[in-house]
Amino acid sequence: MKKNQKTIIMAVIAVAVVAIIAVYTMVSKESGSNTADTGNTETTTETTDSSVTESTDTAFSEDTETEVDSENPSASSSLTITVTDGTITSLKEYPVEDYVTLGDYIGLELSVAALEEVDDASVTELAESYFASLATDYAAELTEGQLVKEGDTVNIDYIGYLDGEAFDGGSASGYDLVIGSGTFIDGFEEGLIGVAVGDTVDLDLTFPSTYSNNPSLAGQAVVFTVTVNYVTPDMTDENVAMVTGEEYTTVEDFEDFCRSYLEYYAEYTYQSDLDYAVLEAITAICTVSEIPDFFYNLIYENLTASIESEASQYGLDGDTYCSYFVGYSMAEYAVMMADEYVPEYLIFQAIANAEDLNPTDEELDEQAALYMYYYGFETADDLYENYISRDMLELSLMQTNVADFLAENAVITYTD
Q1: Do the beta carbons of residue 19 and residue 311 sit within 8 Å?
Q2: 335-372: per-residue pLDDT in tens?
Q3: Cβ atoms within 10 A of the Cβ of 90, count?
Q4: Does residue 154 come out as left (phi exceeding 0), alpha (psi in the -120 to 50 range) or beta?
Q5: Do 222 and 161 touch, CB atoms closer than 8 A?
Q6: CA quadruple 323, 329, 335, 336: dihedral positive or negative?
Q7: In angstroms, rounded to a whole number, what is the distance separating the alpha carbons of residues 336 and 344?
Q8: Sign of the Cα pseudo-torsion (402, 404, 408, 410, in order)
Q9: The model's pTM
Q10: Which residue among 86, 149, 212, 386 is buried most deeply as judged by most CB within 10 Å?
């Protein structure tokens, strides 16, 4: 990964560090109540993906509400806070060496997964999947009049009738069905072969005499009225050009793009794993005795701003968002997270000072210009006011410099 790309990622993490907020995400995918009554043999699953970020040795519990001093959040920290006189406002100017004990950071032993190689099969899989998602909006137009054949993925609407009345669970709209998959009862998929996209047909079918999904339908004669909305289009040069707005005009160009994405993602994943391994290793051998209040409050303010920004995307305020997802007020949660992150910053800063790894003004200006280009800000002031402060950009670039230095001087074992 290019260093400027990595720095952008690191700075995004610094700005939106709340992205690792402990959010319980409940994902329930219903394939519809039609499953049993069409003889659909697919299994509908409900997946719960819970990701909880825990902070140890904090002053809070879910059963305790603690007021946080908005003027001086560091007063609520579980860490040992040093009250400063206000003459120093930058971490690199603060005598962090007096409060950080560094271990032997040269030759860290790291274990990370090796950089994943991108093979042709992965490229094809991504290209076909991405093309299919893009083609949805064009599928009816691209396949109008096309006849359904074995192996096609068709998008259908259907209604099942028993004795002339629509029966419960026998209807669906926009259902994707692979012809020949055996998903539905005998005759359903076969009855769609040869039907033109846009046409509607009635399928006279009979449920199996033994039908455990819905015994009341066992052996019953029914009629399914099925409309073929579209067939998933083939990935041809012409179709690729249409669905991408001529950005890619051939399948080869489109697959090259997908390959580049997978390679970038593989590098990003590897770099993220390496950065995390560095962080784990370095924090295990270094200790921080005290934290300057001005810096703690800076990180707290950045966290609350990030939380509010994240919450606004859901139409919520920061307190409601945090209360719903993590069971704390925004202020409490920001203190918990600051307690976790601030010591890490001090350790990195101590190494940056020792190894002359603090970013120069020229490097910061270069990064700011890169951000302005990527995110459309016309001036640096707009960038610093609306996206990332110069202080946070400096911290993220410092972290990148130190993480790279530690990785370059580490002993790395690669795992499968």
Answers
A1: no
A2: 999 999 999 999 999 999 999 999 999 999 999 999 99
A3: 14
A4: beta
A5: yes
A6: negative
A7: 14
A8: positive
A9: 0.68
A10: 149
